[in-house]
Amino acid sequence: MSLRKWAAAAFCTLGLALGAAPADAQKAGGTFVYLVQPEPPSLASFLSTSGPIGLVAPKIYDGLFDYDNDLNIVPALAESYDVSEDGKTVTFSLRHGVNWHDGEPFTSADVQFTVMSVLKEVHPRGPNSFREVTSIDTPDDYTAVFNLANPAPYMLRALSGYESPMVPKHLLDGTDLRSSDLATNPVGTGAYKFVEWKKGQYIRLDKNENYWKAGLPYIERIVGRFIPDASTRTAAMENGEVMYGAYGAIPNIDAVRLRDMDGFSVTTDGYSMINPMALIEFNTTKAPFDNPEIRKAISLAIDREFLIQNIWFGYGKPATSALSTNFAPTGLYKAGLPNYPANADVAGAIAMLDAAGITPDANGIRATAVLDLIPYGEDWRRAGEYMKQAMSEIGISLEIRYEDVPTWLKRIYADYDFEMNINYFYQLPDPVLGVHRHYGTDQIRQGTHFVNSSRYSNPALDALLAAGAQEANATKRAEIYGEVQDILAEDMPVANLFEMQFLTVYNEKLKDHATSALGAYGPFDRVWLDE
């Protein structure tokens, strides 16, 4: 069976499952209110992968594919695909009869423009996801032919509406992408149309009556509410004002309580595509963090198990490398690396600092720094307080800074005005998609969010990353990424803290909200209310 026929058959089977007419049990209509925490800085998901944007934009924008919870490809704007024998040509057959929310038809020209002029240019991860794409041919409105310099099988895992949203050429071509009106008034092909953004309160989306999936979506209106205070968010969940909170919107301390109450459930489903890792970014251009010894000492002094057990209530796994252990099945993860203790090695950290000549003053202070915190909720504030205490044990005095999302993003990724930053990154299904952007010299892209803010640059590592992206042999690829992890364990421009397990808290009246591997970053087109 040819690859094209195989893909078409698989798409047909999955498409019937996802696009079937509503069953008797599934009820159409209603308003679904969920938590968006914190308020997004914009809705330009083609510019930023900021988490709050992901909670809204994929309901408006589609990708070429979606993915089920086993990471199988599910058809979206592409109905099938064909990969050439040499892996250097990927042909997508696009869905007929799809319109943008303003009524204009979706065509292959939109795919070409999105990938070549938007995602490869201004998206945080697009330059890696589509690094091998040299051009896209559009022989007709429903065929897009990706021409690659080298095979890039990882690209097929980067085509969701969250990761690579298809955007309207007719509204963006010739404009300044970074100041586009679509940031506050998005136009997509997705299940819901943007209606209103009331700053500080909510975003409202209404059902797309002309959605290309017959019978979907079920919900008439979805409302993403912004509630800054954590206890108020939990109260809103308990009293039924909101029905769904993901990505820490309900702090773990409350989630573990709600899971034991009637009418509420907690799940870790819906996160299999993102592979999240909590971490510290160091500004390697500023003393004393230009010295890898202090970066490694800080990693040694962190009690990762304490963070997991006491702040995230047991949900997580200590980081042991620059790569998640979730890459172990593919052979890419390397175990046994130094400088990643599960429990704090304070004596080892002090000895490392002493050997490096980073000695304490008369007050016992070796270094002072500001620790910026990702502004996504109370768990991160508590992590910052822990870090302040832990670092004091090795003579590093920290000041905590917690700002709103736009200010934080600008400080870290535009101004580079930071020393240490607690954050989390998605490592995604392949290191090329989620890990390279931390470390590659070509990923020092000022003004682009969630890339190499450390401004770490190592030509030897750059060469390994390039080789790993192109290597087709699994054994050789594992060797390359083993070397990558060895270098990063010694240079430590980023100190991974723990592999995250996000919790979604939801009202049990809400059904079919975790059918996509993207979970809360999915389209919500099959969600329905059993009321």
From TrEMBL:
Residues 1-25 form the signal peptide. It comes from the Bacteria. Residues 72-431 form the Solute-binding protein family domain. The keyword Plastid does not apply. The keyword Metal-binding does not apply. One of its GO terms (molecular function) is peptide transmembrane transporter activity. InterPro entries: Peptide/Ni-bd (IPR030678), SBP_5 (IPR039424), SBP_5_CS (IPR023765), SBP_5_dom (IPR000914). Keywords: Signal. It is found in: Periplasm. Coiled coil: none annotated. GO terms for biological process: peptide transport. PROSITE patterns: SBP_BACTERIAL_5. GO terms for cellular component: ATP-binding cassette (ABC) transporter complex; outer membrane-bounded periplasmic space. Belongs to the bacterial solute-binding protein 5 family. This is Peptide/nickel transport system substrate-binding protein. It comes from Roseovarius marisflavi. The lineage of its organism: Bacteria, Pseudomonadati, Pseudomonadota, Alphaproteobacteria, Rhodobacterales.
